[in-house]
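Re: beginner question about structure tokens

> Can someone show what the tokenized structure looks like for a real chain? I only ever see the sequence side.

Sure, here's an example I had lying around. Input first:
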Amino acid sequence: MAKQTKKQEEKSFHRELAEQLVTLSTSGFGLVAALAWNEAIQTFVKEYVQVFYPSQSGAISKFIYAIIITFFAVFVTYQLSRLAARFGTKK
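And the corresponding structure tokens:
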């Protein structure tokens, strides 16, 4: 009986460890992706927005950048929430 409990505890530990590793690696890759998007959007704003508004490009570029990032964050969060609801993993 004690052996069975110990095996169950080990199995539970390994499952939780695997879940944590997946969470950590997903977070790490998410950070890398966010940094890549950050740089891509900044480059887009510099190359296309500042061409049309060269004298006022500082403030306008930052607002456009903030709007793009906000839209992207809301879109991704919404899609992930729908996916989580579909699989019943919403916490």
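Each token stands for a local structural state, so reading them left to right follows the chain. The helical segments are 2-52, 57-87.
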